[in-house]
Fold this protein.
Amino acid sequence: MKSNYGKWLRSAALALLVAPALISAASAQPQPDPVAPEPAQSAQPAAMDRAAVEKFYQSSVAAQLAGTEETVEFIKKHADEKLSAWMKIISRVPGAPQAQTEEMTLDKRQLILKTKEGARTSRVQSLKTNLLAVKLSDDGKHAKVKNTSFGISFVRVVSPEGAMLMKAEQSMLCDDELNISPAGLIRFEKSRCNVEVVLEPKN
């Protein structure tokens, strides 16, 4: 059963990795019918300011709550081709003797594949984030964003006893690096996240 949990964690935690810093917090209450995201970066900036960064993350959280297709499209458009996304996951499962720890590094292609894979067994229910710091370069072409986020997902886990629905509470602390593409799109360039996942049966 432990191997099944580990396999799920590699996928389910990725549901929040796409936009590890979510500037505009979604409601902590269930949102079965989220509003479809607006086209991100319709007014393409030549340089970033704090308002542009906030709008970028607002589009990101909206995409995640809208569904897998919208999330994948967001990644394709707003992930740098040389994206490096590193994650350390500490998972706690009721009844397990100790927490499990895993690390992974994904490029853009792997992130898209893992997002699709995770969508087959998990669904993001809510996201809530606190922006800690935004540091802009002098020319506005780069930004470093430090943030925390909290999300709840529901996950279908297969065990020897059969399939069960689990609730996963995910807490994240992330450092992101953003840049602007030649076309004027804000993109994720690097992301480093420490994630704690608490998995328990859904009541």
